[in-house]
Automatic annotation (TrEMBL):
Protein name: Cell division protein ZapE
Keyword RNA-binding: no
Source species: Microbacterium terricola
Keywords, in A-Z order: ATP-binding, Cell cycle, Cell division, Nucleotide-binding
Matches recorded under InterPro entries: ATPase_AFG1-like, P-loop_NTPase
GO biological process: cell division
Pfam families documented for this protein: AFG1_ATPase
Residue ranges of coiled coil: none
NCBIfam families, per database record: ZapE
Amino acid sequence: MTAAASPIGIVHLTERAPQISGAEMVAALVPPPQFDDATFDSYRADAAYPSQQDAKDRLIAFAGVGAPAARGGLFRRAKKEPELKPGVYLDGGFGVGKTHLLASVYHAMPARRKYFGSFIEYTALVGALGYKNTVELFRGADLLCIDEFELDDPGDTMVMTRLLAELVGSGTRLAATSNTPPNALGEGRFAAQDFLREIHAMSASFDTIRIDGTDYRHRAVDGHAATLTDEAYTAAIAAAAASGVASDDAFADLVGHLAQVHPSRYIRLIDGLSVVGLRDVAEFSDQSAALRFVAFIDRVYDAQLPIRATGLSLDRIFPDEMLGGGYRKKYLRAVSRLVASTLS
């Protein structure tokens, strides 16, 4: 089923087996819908965290669209700006506006060829087209924006570091976001010491910009995901289905189905939906399943879809041992997005 069909009713995501071509993947390399109009002017830096304004100023300079606000006294000698590296890397916690700023760079730069995608979209493209064809596709591009840069396995490390090195060598500029500094990518996840040369070579291409702050999604909420009774859930799904398309799946069934769908296709899995429904939510015991669900929630959040759920509160689905491991920041970002999505 596709978004074009847009039937009114209830669907089961476990019955969907979406496909996506390499050409469609490339066409989708633009900012998510909620950042269609993102600009530097619309980014509201929190005065309590000066690094946010500093990041904004440095990205304006990187994009080459104007000078940052002047600072200092009338007779202060102008400070010579350091030579810019080919890439900027926004390092900070979740919910501090990194993706907004990344999209602002994308929209502001008057580039002829520019691309914006999540890390997983780029690695999926390599899988679909092959490494050589992907290099040729992006060669000569003016700008590559990479959201949520994460290296979860050695294969991704090798592919992305070599791809970016080739593109930088051909003149492409890079802008990326992550919750992890570039020289710490992969830490606590796999034998990072075996790939230090590749990781450090990649980090040398980036000017790292630290952004501090609090998660804007939690500034006005209590931090807990909303959980419905069975009756309230049934009513909520029925109401959504009366004017659009609502999904309705048992949590365990959907988690199992995600293992059968490549993460690059998760966006197609939710095509045409107005609400995502999850019944009998439970705690994860398998890390691979948990990480797939995180990738799924990223797509749900990008699509700005509300979630309705029964069972365990969605902010409690990752056990302490997972939250204390190498994927801690990924899980916390997912919790942040789950809370926001259940309250929307």
